[in-house]
Amino acid sequence: MSGFGVEVRDLTARYDTTVALDAVSFTIRPGVITGLLGRNGSGKTTALSVLAAFRRKTSGTVLVDGEDPWENPRVLAGTCLVRESGDVPVDQKLQATLEFLGDRRPLFSRELADSLMDRFELDPLTKPNKLSRGKRSAFGVVVGLASRTPLTLLDEVHLGMDAPSRYAFYDVLLADWLEHPRTIVLSSHLIGEVERLLEDVVVLDRGSVLTAADADTLRSGGVTVTGAAEAVSAFVADRDVVARQQLGRTAQATLIGTRPDDTARAAQAGLELGPVALQDLFVHLTDRPKGAAPTRPSTEESR
Fold it and tell me: DSSP string covering 56-89, please?
């Protein structure tokens, strides 16, 4: 399987007196697309910056393809971190940046870059400081995907883009990953949009890991119940309900946690059970008062 794997153990990162990451541990499997999810201030950007050796860890162990990435030419040559700003020289034309990357990134695809430049309507003779926020984000996507590095880290890179551009980005990311497998870590708030891309998920909250699991395992920690409103209400009584919807006499409730007799009970009541969206699980996991203990799904699978 292509791509760099990542092992993080007891990683702590501090900014002066602020603890951005507090002894976090997780694994990123090589060759898969992993979602790094968390609210603002959860530590996502810090974690990705440490993996890419943009900043030094305070303590703990970080291994990228089996080696510490800090001042490691081999690992750094195979790692690309792109943030929303694009992390490119603002006073150089886009064309010059692409040429620079082509000279220094051995797997850089100029064909893909040119295709994406056309798709996002980016003028190669323009400088980043002359672009709108959405166009700067689009150029960050070009850099991140066309580099085709064994470890590609995309930190909220798509947030400045409008909806059609974001969906074009998702389609290209998936198609190019299938053709050229590598490890991609996608940090995002837009979980409902990106969850179809994700095989694994790491959820950070206030500098700690709430859960790290494959997406299917995480989804199995909950269930949706759909049917007649009265029957749904009876079924979810005394259960942990995180979302409700109703249209006429039909209702749907989203539960966290499953019980052995759920399938039989639902069949008897004429109800349908279905999977839970990652967005609902994310909201449930991270929705807690400051200082309260984190909620973890019963199906958590630590790596």
Answer: --SEEEEEETTB--TT-HHHHHTEEEEETT-SS-
What's the structural domain count of the chain? 2
Residues 11 and 92 in one domain: yes
Say how far apart CA 100 and CA 104 lie, in whole Å. Answer: 6
Does residue 42 lie in a domain region?
yes
Q: Write the pLDDT tens digit of every residue in 91-133.
A: 899 999 999 999 999 999 999 999 999 999 999 999 999 999 9
CB count, 10 Å around CB of 162? 11
Q: Please give the Cα distance from 170 to 24 (Å, whole number).
A: 28
CB 9 within 8 A of CB 286: no
Over residues 218-233, the pLDDT tens digits come to 888 889 999 999 999 9
